[in-house]
């Protein structure tokens, strides 16, 4: 946050920056928890403000250096769920059973209570919704998920772990080099068109009413449709914006059109849209057993940042 200083400020400067976590915004002004303590900035002194991506805890390029827990939290923006309930640092999400991501407890950070009690609370909350208790558990690529404290607790109660998923990241400027397919155009809109629905996956179309409600929760999204010169929609996907990042979701090419480079065109156009807006990093999530998709993403510059699993307790 850029703050205007008084004309007689001893520093002689006109402005100063206040960085930290915004914890309140009311008539008094903006309250920020900074390294120096709590700072209240009156609105009359606020010149500008912007969100800052999470601090890195790894060395390397920005899309590689973000901490696993921070990226896990950031990815919630792409599919927030219809119901969200915090349990300490954990976040329980529900979307009437559509997708694991939107119907699991994001188990990162401290739940604010002993682990066994937190698992009980998640189980009870999902029980009230008529759903099994799902926990999303993340770690470095190749980590032993059964040794994770949450997974170990679930397994000890007779639960199971399943569905290894890779989170891949890349620099948008590098991905943006992907060439478009001749005689096609990629339509980018702020809301899904009928053409987008035509090329979306069968599961997405089958649950259209629910998906429309889920997509309405995405704060800043774009919907991409690859069309032939005739106007026929052959592939679709969407991107969700977060501070400093885009997430790629729902990438799908019609079965009869696969192998023509339309998936590559979708990802490339997504990166160009982000890069044009100054967004430098991209993420996506892909099942660990989907070798063709992983090969495509790697050829575009994506690398595996981390992985996650689900732990289920009925």
What does this structure look like?
This is Acetyltransferase (GNAT) family protein. InterPro entries: Acyl_CoA_acyltransferase, Bact_Acetyltransf, GNAT_dom, Rv0428c-like_C. There is one protein chain. The strands form three sheets. An eleven-stranded mixed beta sheet has the order 7-8-9-10-17-11-16-15-14-13-12, sandwiched between helices. With about 325 residues, it is of the alpha+beta class. Helices cover about 25% and strands about 35% of the residues. It has three domains: about 1-50; about 60-160, no CATH class; about 170-305, Aminopeptidase, CATH 3.40.630.
Strand content: 25-35%
The spatial strand order of the largest sheet comes to 7-8-9-10-17-11-16-15-14-13-12
Choose one word for the global shape: globular
> Roughly how much helix do the residues carry, as a percent range?
25-40%
Task: State the order of secondary-structure elements, H for helix, E for strand.
Answer: EEEEEEHHEEEHEHEHEHHHEEEHEHE
Structural class: alpha+beta
Alpha-carbon distance between the two ends: 46 Å
How many helices does DSSP assign? 10
Question: How many domains?
Answer: 3
Q: Under CATH, the topology of the largest domain is which? A: Aminopeptidase
GO molecular function, one term: acyltransferase activity, transferring groups other than amino-acyl groups
Protein name: Acetyltransferase (GNAT) family protein
Pfam families: Rv0428c_C
Keywords: Acyltransferase, Transferase
